[in-house]
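Subject: design request, 146 residues
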């Protein structure tokens, strides 16, 4: 990966809808050369995918809750079972294996027609290996670059 690839990645991280022509003009390549670079970056796994950033209104004004999860132990089987079950939980939008007091930091979106109490009691607490949950509710989200 060279400096041009890094520039392409930076530009796409800011606006993934840029065309090959627009990318090429900004990094000094022809549109076809820029397109080839993007395809190569996708194939090597540098670009994992593309997504739309939706407004809270478009998502039904969900509340965001960050949950610190402590497992009963850190055995591989326990962590794998937890991660597998967590991946099947649609309310969870992100999960991070952490260092420090908790094992995972999980981002949960609570839609207007749902309640966090139900998600906590029926879903998160029932995940395999969960010993403790500590929840923090967002007051406001500051939007910025990824």
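Subject: RE: design request

Done. Sequence follows.
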């Amino acid at each position: 990966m060279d400096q041009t690839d890094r520039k392409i990645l930076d530009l796409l991280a800011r606006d993934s809808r840029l065309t090959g022509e627009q990318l090429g003009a900004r990094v000094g390549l022809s549109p076809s050369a820029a397109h080839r670079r993007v395809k190569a970056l996708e194939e090597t796994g540098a670009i994992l995918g593309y997504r739309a950033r939706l407004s809270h209104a478009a998502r039904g004004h969900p509340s965001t809750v960050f949950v610190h999860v402590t497992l009963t132990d850190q055995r591989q089987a326990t962590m794998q079972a937890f991660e597998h079950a967590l991946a099947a939980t649609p309310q969870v939008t992100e999960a991070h294996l952490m260092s420090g007091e908790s094992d995972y930091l999980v981002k949960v979106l609570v839609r207007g027609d749902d309640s966090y109490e139900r998600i906590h009691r029926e879903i998160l607490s029932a995940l395999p290996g969960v010993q403790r949950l500590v929840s923090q509710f967002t007051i406001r989200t500051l939007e910025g670059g990824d």
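Residues 3-43 form a domain with the Arc Repressor Mutant, subunit A fold (CATH 1.10.10.10).
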